[in-house]
Amino acid sequence: MGEAASPGQLRSSFIRWALVTVPAILLLGMLSAKIGDSGYGNLWFDRLVKPPIMPPGWVFPFAWSVLYIMIGFALAIILNARGAKGRGIAIFLFLVQLALNLAWSPVFFAMHRIMLAFGLIVAIFLWAGLATLMFWKIRPLAGWLMVPYLAWLVFAAVLNWQVHQLNPNGLTLVPRTGNTQIIIQ
Predict the structure, then answer these.
(1) CB–CB of 120/104 below 8 Å?
(2) Distance between CA atoms of residues 185 and 181, nearest Å
(3) What is the DSSP letter of 173?
């Protein structure tokens, strides 16, 4: 009754968690990008003045895919750490930052709200930072897997801020999709 799980059982449990978390997070990220009409090809985004540090368009889906895989594995490690002190709080912090992350593309690309998106990145970083610290305490490898994500969030925040500075009237470049405009003369 009080037997510990064998290394093989623990590995098998982790693999089952990873087979759920990694594809789920990737799928949610792709869905968020699709809903937000993210990236080049979005008329509004194409009209924005881009900062010199803006990477080519292919970098974003590649980077986000790698990062989502890494944080998916980090979450799987924590979910597999049954009985670990702080596990529930760590999972909660992770889910909050993930929800904020998934909101960013629709806010920036679909709603054209550059500064609201910047505020979201700051919030994502804070929540992800707390999740990373909790992950680290539970399983250091899970914390390490979150570090590139935190670094990318800092880069994304810098890009977001520079886009705002270069496009102070970015909200008005093109009407938002589904936006009804009534002009009274």
Answers:
(1) yes
(2) 13
(3) S
- The DSSP letter of residue 171 is G
Residue 19 in this model has a pLDDT that exceeds 70: yes
87, 75 contact by CB (below 8 A)? no
Q: Which of these ranges, 23-27, 77-81, 166-170, has the smallest mean pLDDT? A: 166-170
pTM summary value: 0.87
The answer, yes or no, to whether residue 1 has pLDDT greater than 50, is no
SS3 labels along 64-110: HHHHHHHHHHHHHHHHCCCCCCCHHHHHHHHHHHHHHHHHHHHHHHH
Q: What tokens does 120 get?
A: 């979201």
Long-range contacts of 141-149 (CB under 8 A, 24+ apart): 141/74, 141/77, 142/73, 142/74, 142/75, 142/77, 142/78, 143/74, 145/70, 145/71, 145/73, 145/74, 145/77, 146/70, 146/71, 146/74, 148/66, 148/67, 148/70, 149/67, 149/70, 149/71
Q: Please give the C-alpha separations between residue 103 and each of 48, 119, 147, in angstroms, as whole numbers.
A: 20, 11, 21
pLDDT in tens, 32-56: 999 999 999 999 999 999 999 999 9
- State the average pLDDT over residues 115-119: 97
